[in-house]
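Chapter summary example.
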Amino acid sequence: MYFDRDNGLEPIHPIDGDGLQMSKEPVFSFVIPVYQKPAEIFERCLASLFDQTLKEIEVIAIFDGPDKELQEVASKFPKVQSHVIEHGGAPKARNYGTSLAKGKYVVCWDADCQGKPEMATRWLQEFEATGADFVYSGYEFSQERGGYPSEQFDPYSLTCGNYISTMFPILREKAPKWDESLKCGQDWDFWLTAVENGCKGVWIEGSGWITEPSFGSISDIGWSPERRAETIRIVKEKHGIPEREIAVGSFRHFFKALHIAKLTQGDILKNRGEDLSKYKMIFNLGMGDYVRFRGASKDCVKIHYWMPWDIDCMYAIAFKTARETIAHINTEVTHNFCNEITSKKRLEDLGIKAEVLPLPTEIDGLEETLPDKFKVLVDCDKAYRPILVDLPKALPHIPIDFVDTMGNVASIPEYSLLLSFYENPGVDESMRRFLLHGRNLISNVQAPFCGYVDMGLKHVDFKNEMINRIMDARDLGFNKKAQDYYKNLVDPKKFVEKLNSLLPQPAMEVVS
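The structure predicted for these 512 residues follows.
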């Protein structure tokens, strides 16, 4: 569900005593192509739309050829506008229905989808809050068969594969026509066209509707392993999307992987995506996904990038399992990389030879100021938390926050100083982000500008040392030297040049 009324979120638009929306003009026009659907499923679909808490909607059913049984279902709902056209496929029906729509936003709905009651209200809230041209979310499959969560809006990611379903609203005046020549990939083509025309989308977390799995449909067959490549080729050719030689994938670090894909002009890997055999290089970021190399060509350069958490997992799993995993990686992977020297040494202990290659970081637009109020953030694991948790009591006049156990990213501009203490110390991504923003640092990491503190000190001596270091840090200004050092270290050009050198034929340039 998007939300519930218990949390104080009510429908935006008032309803009169008869349960009808006061405004006469519809906000959403639901255009439904109808063709060979079970009657009971179509009836549930229509009922769910008229059960919306937002009543300013119109429902236009376009029958793709006569269907007496389904037309009778529609007749049970007096407000449904029913139209029968000559059979020509869903895109033709959608285009015809859109031409009749009067709503501010048009939704090309499917006859087997059921909207949750708050769906349209939530859509409208997001439109009004963001000024987006279209909004979308994930969706669920019926009978607890899982679902699809979608992803945040990014035009480049959309060129690598679709993540927006047909059944979401777009400003009617900006809605492109559906390509009536396409049998498969219709939704991907539609949203690519909308974005190419300048439309901007907003992703809503959660799911607003439920659908029946489309096993055996024309669309489902078009995305089958046998026909997937052809479907992708047709859509990419239409939109001038180039064939890319590099693929980047990650299960846990999608946005970092997407950043790398953009830099290298590569594809970000997705479910039901490209055939891996076409790529010259596959870059996998993080554990759990080295299976992505399956299907790659013999000559493909296979890169596995180790994050600190991944290395921790290797130490934590059973010896036999770890040994089998390491043997597989050493056989399958062409190059292993990691972020800093500590990770490299830990991988060597596991029997994995890796090279240090700092991940590229977006470094444009970095400010050179500190906040007016001195504030401290503590990032530590459970081993050091009991030692550091007393600092706020010892320094009550200094605001000291702790990163929560969920690892939520803190707002760097709020803080002047970061304390970072982990059992396996290394310059991790959060430390590097703080240093790139010119913040000061105290840690147990022996690396440039990391404010090393010897953890061999007794508890009392360590506590006193930390108090003194925090007090002294109040007089430290913006750390320009640290910022310049780490900007150079994580320069995207260096990262791309390294990957470029591993390709049989250099093929990429840094994308600014």
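To summarize the output: The radius of gyration is 27 Å.
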